[in-house]
Every structure is written in C-alpha cells, then in structure tokens.
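Ex. 9. Protein: Flagellar protein FlgN.
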Amino acid sequence: MATTTGFLPTVEAEVAAARRFVSLLELEQEMLTKGEVDHLLALVQQKNELALTLATLAEQRHQALAAEGLKADRLGVSAWFAAHPTASRARAAWSSLLSIASQARELNRLNGELIQMRMQHNAQALEALLGTHNALGLYGPDGQNTLPSGPRISDSA
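Predicted structure tokens for Flagellar protein FlgN:
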C-alpha cells in the first residue's frame, strides 16, 4: 500500500481551510448579531472562495483514497486508517477535521436563523412603513387614514 504522503497533507490543508471557514462564520454571526450588515457581501464572497477551496481539497482526499483502492467516504477513511495503523498524525488531523466540520455546520445553521430573523424584522418594518396590512392606522400620502372602512359619512352628503 502507498504511504500517507497524499492523504495526510490534504487532510491537514483541509483542517487549515476549515478553521478559516469557521472564523468567517463566526465573523458573520457577529456582524448579524450587531446589525453590521454593510460588509456581509464581501464576507459571502470570501466564504464562497473558501468553500471552493474546501471542495477542491476534498476531491484531492478522495483521489488519495482512490489511489489506494478505497472509497471516498467514511468507510474508505476507516479502511485507510486500518491499513496505516501508525498514522497518528493523520488520525489526529482527520478527527480535527470532523470536529471543525461539525462546528461549521452548527454556526451555519445559527447564522441562517439570524438571517431569517433579520429578514422577518425587515419585512415587518417595511409593512409598517408601507401600511400593507393597514394595522397601524397610518395616514396615506393624501392625508387620509388608511384603515379599511366602508363609505364615509361625508361621502354620502
């Protein structure tokens, strides 16, 4: 069997990229929590670029496993570790990668909830400003009350 040369550096590179991705997710969460949304577009671009890097590294890992005749899944990784029992550094890197990926999933889920809350808040504010539900009894641009009503007394006079 081949040595750990292809698998280990790829997983270590994945760990480094995943840590950077988690940092971006944490920054995104901070921005969303504080309402500092002005720089979110640039952050999304960085996240997308890093996601592409992570996908490329995952493909390299899959190729390293395939080079040893293993599947590109958890069973393949388990088989790789069984074939390389002394690869403690690779095992530690893989464990770190799984932990960081779990952290990233949770941060992404929470950020999605924060975004949803912000969107609901913005929609409610817009409804209040535009009077789309007429719930606030605001006045329209003509100075008339926007509450739905039947014919006015003055309309029949």
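Check your answer against this statement. The first helix runs from residue 7 to 34.
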